[in-house]
Specification:
470 residues; alpha/beta; seven-stranded mixed beta sheet; 11 helices; globular; disordered C terminus
């Protein structure tokens, strides 16, 4: 291995771009990034449909745990951002309930409210055993009533797997804790509680959707090292060599792979003994359906950011008023508006691909998001096979030995599906996984984020030999 190791990167999403950016900052120019797609962004890309509406691959919002990430975002887009205060809601029982749901159950019908309160009260004296699965964790936290009314149906819709098949220990700040005294005060006083969460404020690009961020980050990297439109078809574990679809071979000293880990295991040469592990990896697929409308956004949706839908009357688990994120997400700002729905799919929750757009529009009407006569001027649909990396029961027992063996051969599998850790797969987490992987390779520093430590330890630096990068 040379004193200046050659680092190959697979994937031009946030993790791969974070890794490449960090190497440039440290003055390490012996690297190359490969991605099948001709444009950077990965799962954080954006698209413009034939009618001129902009769409993301899901309801991305940008908030951060890291100064480094904040500085990278500022460098990417400058002041071309829209700042938002989160306004999130739950639609169920034919009414709006503020998010987080568990703090605002006072808006429920009386029978549902009493069931939720009964469950919360029972928790105060019930013995609590260490939960072995996600459904048990939910019951321990929220009680039977809240779980039956909201937690179980919603989590099945979003994950596309029953909570009983999912592990525990990954939730962190993903699920708001419940405070019985706070809930009771809200019920008695008739007040709403809407401020919880790490994304109570967020920002969004003024132009180009979320993908504009990552296109800009990529444009600041040297073009000669950005090998976009080049698909890796084989990784030789022992020879440390990539093979591309056109037959080109690339030797490396270290590899940072952000491709889905189950797919990486399937293309390892010399690592065939790992391939049988791939079917154990559980994920759900995501259908993103965008619908554009003529006219102004309805008054009831004018300030809403996104909404959750736990009931079976709609196919989607979340809908974003995407035109509220930026006026330029529609071709004629002020004269048009848009909704973007997310529908999960798995073997436990099949989806009719041919009807998904029609079903989403029917769901919009059933949930009173649109009128029957609303003028639809655009529809857009994209299915992502790898949508959510599911924290299945026994996940960590599978991941740990695979990571150890890959690491021993110079491969760090990182990112949303590279690490297969949903709990550290936001955009800021993903960038920092790439940044910290480079730190481990070049400087021997720890990978805090990959191990679930949200430590804000890394100060941003300017790229070596420049005044702000390329």
């Amino acid at each position: 291995m040379s004193s200046r190791p050659f680092v190959a990167i697979i994937g031009a999403g946030p993790t791969g771009l974070g890794a490449a950016t960090r190497m440039e900052e440290l003055g390490h120019t012996d690297w190359a990034l490969f991605d099948t797609c001709p444009e950077a962004g990965g799962l954080a890309s954006s698209y413009v449909d034939d009618q001129g509406f902009t769409w993301d691959i899901g309801g991305h919002v940008l908030f951060s745990h890291y100064r480094y990430f904040d500085a990278l975002m500022d460098r990417a887009l400058g002041d071309a951002w829209v700042e938002h205060v989160r306004e999130a809601w739950v639609w169920m029982r034919d009414r709006w309930i503020p998010y987080p749901f568990q703090n605002n159950i006072r808006r429920l019908p009386t029978d549902d409210l009493l069931a939720c309160l009964d469950g919360l009260i029972d928790l105060q004296t019930a013995p609590r055993e260490r939960p072995a699965s996600f459904d048990q964790w939910l019951l321990n936290q929220f009680g039977q009533g809240l779980c039956d009314v909201f937690m179980f149906p919603y989590n099945f819709k979003v994950w596309a797997y029953p909570p009983a098949t999912m592990d525990v220990g990954w939730m962190g700040e993903r699920v708001a804790p419940v405070d019985l005294k706070r809930v009771v005060r809200n019920v008695v006083r008739g007040g709403d509680d809407v401020g919880w969460g790490p994304n109570s404020t967020f920002r969004f690009p003024l132009h180009g959707g979320t993908g504009a961020i990552w296109r800009s980050v990529a444009e600041q990297l040297p073009r000669e090292r950005m090998r976009l439109g080049r698909r890796v078809v084989s990784v030789d574990l022992h020879a440390r060599r990539l093979t591309l679809a056109d037959g080109e071979q690339v030797a490396y000293d270290h590899l940072i792979s952000t491709m889905p880990l189950d797919l990486l295991l399937g293309i390892l040469k010399g690592g065939e003994h790992l391939a049988p592990q791939a079917p154990r990896f559980v994920h759900s697929s995501s259908h993103i359906v965008g619908v554009g409308f003529d006219g102004p956004v309805p008054d009831e949706l004018r300030t809403k950011c996104w909404m959750y839908f736990p009931e079976s009357t709609s196919p989607f688990y979340r809908v974003t008023v995407f035109s509220n994120y930026s006026p330029h997400n529609v071709p004629r700002p002020g004269e048009q508006w848009s909704l973007m729905a997310e529908v999960s799919e798995s073997s436990a929750k099949p989806v009719d691909h041919a009807r998904v757009i029609e079903d989403v529009i029917d769901g919009f009407r059933a949930s009173r998001l649109i009128r029957d006569d609303e003028r639809i001027v655009s529809t857009w649909h994209r299915r992502m096979e790898h949508g959510y990396p599911t924290p299945w029961l026994g996940r960590d027992d599978v991941l740990a030995p695979i990571d150890a063996e890959l690491s021993a051969h110079g491969i760090l599998s990182r990112g949303r599906f590279g690490a297969w850790k949903y709990e550290v797969s936001n955009q800021d987490h993903s960038v920092m996984q790439g940044v910290e992987a480079v730190g481990r390779i070049l400087e021997g520093t720890p990978e805090y984020t990959f191990h679930g430590d949200m430590r804000d330890w890394l100060d941003p630096v300017e790229p070596a030999g420049s005044a702000g990068g390329r």
